Amino acid sequence: MTASEPFRAIPRDPATAYGQSPGANPPFRFTDTSREASLARLEKLAFLLDSAFLIPGTNRRVGLEAVIGLVPVIGDIAGVALSSYILYEAKRLGVPRWLLARMALNVAFDGAVGVVPLAGDLFDAAFKANRRNVRLLRRHLERSGAVRPNEIDGTATRLD
Questions:
Q1: For residue range 19-76, what is the model confidence (pLDDT) as tens digits?
Q2: In 3D, which of 128, 149, 153, 154 has the Cα closest to residue 39?
Q3: Contact yes or no for 7/58 (Cβ under 8 A)
Q4: What is the reported pTM?
Q5: How many Å apart are CA 63 and CA 48, to the nearest integer?
Q6: Can you tell me the distance from the alpha carbon of 128 to that of 63, in angstroms, rounded to the nearest whole number?
Q7: Are 50 and 60 in contact (CB under 8 A)?
Q8: Which is it for the CA torsion 124, 130, 133, 135, positive or negative?
């Protein structure tokens, strides 16, 4: 910048404002609010919270919620708060109240039993409330036609 050019014009096109050529794809956004994108994010979150880690020497998986649940009281509160995000997203996606209530009961049951020092942590590792809630949400959205089915129902016939 020189003294004769004190200010440089800021480009108004958002593509060129971030150093991209005008024909380039827009940057990836985390704010994709489509139902399928939201459901995919919730499935990843539920996997992280309930099944992210394999216990060595066993075939059991535990998640981040079981690990942070080892911290008395604070870990259980944090686990319920993280699980409540799935409820928030379900409400945003427009599920009926009865389904929200069922999902909230899963979270409340998981949180209430999780308060018990050792048995609660074992229960939390086995119950997997977040995976249950996302499965309920997916099933509802598939039946209502809001998202495409994850699996195709039917029978396969071999053509020889």
A1: 555 555 555 555 667 888 899 999 999 999 999 999 999 989 999 998 998 888 899 8
A2: 149
A3: no
A4: 0.73
A5: 6
A6: 9
A7: no
A8: negative
